[in-house]
């Protein structure tokens, strides 16, 4: 009897274990989609562009050196009234099942972004394969199709190059931001914070940049580069913010990790370089007589990277003057960013959310009119505290010599 029971239990266990393969999919039946692009056709339908990895060519290109192994990716397009319909239609062109678990990048054409993001991410959020951590960028002055078709020389898969460029640019320079699908969905579904998304542009000949011959040259015919921040209001792209002003956005959002601040000194522009190694930003909201205001407190720590003027870094008074100049430079960037956002009447900084957290009852009264009646006239007080940790190996610039106790130009 015990032997019969043991046999039955063994058979049942085997059945349970073997049943785990019922939904298997062979690797040769899957099309690994590394990036998705979204454009609009002339008749208003959605066009989805898929960047599908050619595994053999990616490995082959590495082994044989350069691009002799063939193109690392293939581009497929499909149109539909919605994203799911377009995705299903790819079965007419692709011999494998679209697989989104490795999709790390979503590229949205500028035209689509201006029409609005509402509804674009619903299908992505519902798909169990699609990652909410996929990065999102806007194709600036170009279509998503153009961006995904450009071949890149260092990272064989262009989607990976865009992702890495954004990551390193945010870390080292601070004028672009890494935004994921989940971040945008949260901003679109909440009040008091509008999305801000990095742009990607194309430099050079777009048509030639899609050919493999482009990446076989020391200077490709076309390059991808990160280009400014896209500001959104009510889910629609309303403008771009560039340069130091875009860095001002990241100062407020506490996204600056490292960057470089260049300031003038006694009439000479861009005379001293301050390398920021650490920064921390805190934002506080206040309401007085029914009028909201915001305080932004930025603390930085860094080193002197370059000095092009006669400056004695051993002098505490001159160091204090330099510290003040650095703080004023950072403050100007933040205020410039705030003014540009006010012009578009879109709160990309999340000041509204700060007011809500501090004054939830008052926020309910002003939430509906925040962007139109309150944010454009919001008082924003910026305080910057910069600390110079190190001045480098030389306290007196070598391009100057000291004569009579004063630093003067070498003759």
Fold and architecture overview:
Helix content is 33%, strand content 32%. The chain has 411 residues and is of the alpha/beta class. The chain folds into two domains: 26-241, no CATH class; 244-411, GMP Synthetase, Chain A, domain 3 (2-Layer Sandwich), CATH 3.30.300.210. The strands form three sheets. Strands 1, 2, 3, 4, 5, 6, 7, 8 and 9 form a nine-stranded mixed sheet that branches. The longest helix is centred in the last third of the chain and has 29 residues, at 316-344. Residues 61-68 have low confidence and may be disordered.
Please state the structural category. Answer: alpha/beta
Estimated helix fraction = 25-40%
Taken from the alpha-carbon principal axes, the silhouette is globular
Q: How many extended strands?
A: 15
- Determine the number of helices (DSSP H or I, runs of at least 4 residues): 14
Q: What is the CA–CA distance across the termini? A: 107 Å
Task: State Rg.
Answer: 27 Å
**How do the SSEs run, as a string of H and E?**
HEEHEHEEHHEHHHEHEEHEEEHHHHEEE
The number of domains is 2
Which blocks of ≥5 consecutive residues have pLDDT under 50? 61-68
The largest pleated sheet is described as:
9 strands, mixed
Strand content: 25-35%
Average per-residue pLDDT, rounded, comes to 90
């Amino acid at each position: 009897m015990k032997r019969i029971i043991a046999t039955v239990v063994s058979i049942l266990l085997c059945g349970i274990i073997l049943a785990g393969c019922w939904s298997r999919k062979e690797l040769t039946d899957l099309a690994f989609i590394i990036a998705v692009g979204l454009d609009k056709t002339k008749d208003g339908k959605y066009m989805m562009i898929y960047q599908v990895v050619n595994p053999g060519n990616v490995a082959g290109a590495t082994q044989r050196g350069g691009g002799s192994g063939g193109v690392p990716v293939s581009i497929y397009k499909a149109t539909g009234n919605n994203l799911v319909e377009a995705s299903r239609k790819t079965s007419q062109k692709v011999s494998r099942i679209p697989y989104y678990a490795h999709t790390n990048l979503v590229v949205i054409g500028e035209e689509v972004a201006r029409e609005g993001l509402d509804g674009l991410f619903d299908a992505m959020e519902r798909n169990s394969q699609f990652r909410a951590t996929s990065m999102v960028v806007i194709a600036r002055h170009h279509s998503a199709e153009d961006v995904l078709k450009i071949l890149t020389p260092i990272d064989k898969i262009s989607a990976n190059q865009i992702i890495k460029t954004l990551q390193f640019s945010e870390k080292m320079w601070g004028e672009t931001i890494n935004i994921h699908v989940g971040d945008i969905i949260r901003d679109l579904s909440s009040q008091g914070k509008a999305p801000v998304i990095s742009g990607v542009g194309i430099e050079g000949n777009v048509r030639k940049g899609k050919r493999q011959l482009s990446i076989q040259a020391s200077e490709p015919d076309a390059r991808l580069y990160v280009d400014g921040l896209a500001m959104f209001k009510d889910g629609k792209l309303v403008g771009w913010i560039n340069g130091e002003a875009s860095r001002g956005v990241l100062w407020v959002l506490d996204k600056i990790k490292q960057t470089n601040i260049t300031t003038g000194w006694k009439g000479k522009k861009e005379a001293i370089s301050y390398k920021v190694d650490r920064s921390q930003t805190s934002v506080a909201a206040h309401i007085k007589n029914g009028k909201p205001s915001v305080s932004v407190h930025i603390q930085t720590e860094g080193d002197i990277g370059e000095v092009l003027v006669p400056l004695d870094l051993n002098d505490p008074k001159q160091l204090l003057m330099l510290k003040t100049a650095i703080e004023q430079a950072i403050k100007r960037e933040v205020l410039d960013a705030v003014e540009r956002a006010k012009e578009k009447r879109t709160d990309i900084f999340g000041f509204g959310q700060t007011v809500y957290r501090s004054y939830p009852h008052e926020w309910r009264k002003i939430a509906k009119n925040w962007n139109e009646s309150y944010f454009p006239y919001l008082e924003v007080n910026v305080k910057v505290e910069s600390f110079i940790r190190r001045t480098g190996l030389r306290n007196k610039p070598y391009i100057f010599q000291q004569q009579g106790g004063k630093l003067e130009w070498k003759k």
